[in-house]
Amino acid sequence: MSTDLILPSNDRDAGVVEEICGYLTEDPPRSYFLFAGAGSGKTRTLVEVLRRMTGVVEHEKGGQLALRLRMYGRSIRVITYTKNAVAVINGRLGDNSLVGVSTIHAFCWELISGFNDDIRAALIALKEIQFEKIRFEALAKPRGITPVKQRDLDEITAEIEAIRSIAVFIYHPDRESHGPGALAHHNVLDATAWLLNNRPTLRTILKDRYPIVLIDESQDTMKGVLDALMGLAEPRGSGLTLGLLGDHRQRIYTDGHSDLPSRVPSNWATPELQMNHRSQQRIVTLINRIWVAKLEGRTQPANGVEQHWRTEKTGGLVRLFVGSTSLSSENKVLGERWCADQMRVESGSAAWNDGEHQVLALEHKLVAMRGSFLDVYGAMALLDPNAAAPSGSGENKGPAVAKFLLNELAELELCVGRDGYIDEFKLTEVLRRHGRLEIMPGDAVARASRVAEILQGIREFGVACVNPASTIGEIIAPVLTAKIFEIDHRLLEAHADKSAPPTAPTRGQEESKLDRMRRGWCALFASPWPQLQKYRNYLAGNSVLATHQVVKGSEYPDVMVVMDDVSAGGFLISYDKIFGGKDLSDTDKDNAGIGKETTIDRTLRLLYVTCSRARETLALVLWSSDTTAALARIQDSGWFSLDEVREIPDPPFTTQTP
Ligand SMILES: Nc1ncnc2c1ncn2[C@@H]1O[C@H](COP(=O)(O)OP(=O)(O)OP(=O)(O)O)[C@@H](O)[C@H]1O
């Protein structure tokens, strides 16, 4: 396969929409797997197909299909990975009663909710399978079922008994459910997969309601549900037609099949999108080369279409910066600023100057350090490790106990001018929105006194706000004292408690939730006030910082990918191994030997995803444990030309004036 192609046209994929419409309207219809690489315009293709299949855009066979769907009260179902993607597709599609778009969780719950006896049976069956697996594995070992294993087995038996006693199961796709009968997200997917495999009625209901199901990001779709649906779509003409859209090069979660293309039945159609409409030529050639790279430890096949850039996008700038990972975190951040400065000089793009380029780091802590909100992030992670960081699903609310700091306080802050002046009109609006005006005393004297109390609290808040040295604890004190909002009692109690925080546990030492949260509160109240706003922005996805994993589906003009294995501290990903600064471990070699997924496979895909987010310029910053070895390997790889690679100098870093 050649990597650098001369392009005849931007329209080489123009026939794919019609090709897919043909498969869906054949008699019997034919399932398909659409290979759609990064920036290939999957969503546009999907929406255009749906428009034709539902009679919005004139299409002879599509019009007939729409008529049949309408006659039998059926619709086409589209399953996407995030709620954001649901909104994008619905937005582009407009009002269309013949198409239902949802996440897989919402889809599964829609199918099974209310069938409480079936859900119960599924959950018990799944627990019994788990029980048998643990028992079987334990019996195969010389020590047999040890007391610890027996405890695990007893726990499962108790869980089965608890499930038996539940009459009604509850679930909400957009949030955690609590209380008796509450199902976790994975329970719903597992139960649906089990029921589709074991309950013919559910299969009939599904086919009858949704004869066509199209699944976006199928490479990351939970394999249990995907397998059940793929089984239902066989043989052709069974009543269910599937359309899978995906890019196995962009698989970053472990839920999906490790090599989906190889599992696609041979009688399915496999159309391909060959264009990359997003990125400049240099970025497209880089991702093409990355994907076909022959690397030691790679088990993942290099199958997939080579992409073509648009004829007018013949530019693009890529630089790889390599520095020593032994530098302190602070120096790494300064080093990355130096890299951004080099990008500014070489690309002439003002974004690199103004810090408007998108920084992608491997892990939330690294992002928090680069975004100067590490104290607040660390504190939030202690309050609720599962809710402190954006998840990529678009629903990031932060720890529920800190809701006041993330919502009401942010609104209050907007009522304060730069000089600490309070905009009373805005303030009244905020108080009204939170129902605080309704509970004002009716009596005129009491009311005046209450207003004075609130204003006093707000004024003190305003003064503290404009002082960047204020801590979060100091900022909220007057707001709490004046009881301006209704606040979670846990926050109130924590703020009133002036005791010192418990000491952090040592490695391997257990810590109670109470102690962990107390440490979180103390750290939060002691954190510098300006960090809170930065943290809120990050949580809401409005920051120029993100982790590698949450950028699925996004694109940015200028991207810096920070590759720092040591600070990230994980073991599943290692950029240094890909770039040659670190040797493969024995486990990597063993896994590669038996064809099991390796660190190299996972890291390569993540690198593919991050690089393919860039439209114009891309800076890769590698913090390596052996810069000399890495630089030599990089030279051999052929991914970059010599003048695209820079060694990051030792600190102090000097930048050039713009
Ligand atoms: N046919 C087209 N002509 C011109 N631009 C297009 C076309 N299709 C898509 N684009 C543009 O290319 C960019 C990438 O499209 P899109 O985000 O839909 O790709 P994608 O396939 O979802 O990519 P990824 O899987 O990498 O997230 C967008 O800016 C989009 O507007």
TrEMBL record:
Keywords: ATP-binding, Helicase, Hydrolase, Nucleotide-binding. ATP binds at A36, G37, A38, G39, S40, G41, K42, T43. One of its GO terms (biological process) is recombinational repair. The keyword Mitochondrion does not apply. Residues 15-312 form the UvrD-like helicase ATP-binding domain. GO terms for molecular function: 3'-5' DNA helicase activity; ATP binding; DNA binding; hydrolase activity. PANTHER family: ATP-DEPENDENT DNA HELICASE SRS2, UVRD / RECB / PCRA DNA HELICASE FAMILY MEMBER. This is DNA 3'-5' helicase II. It comes from Prosthecobacter fusiformis.
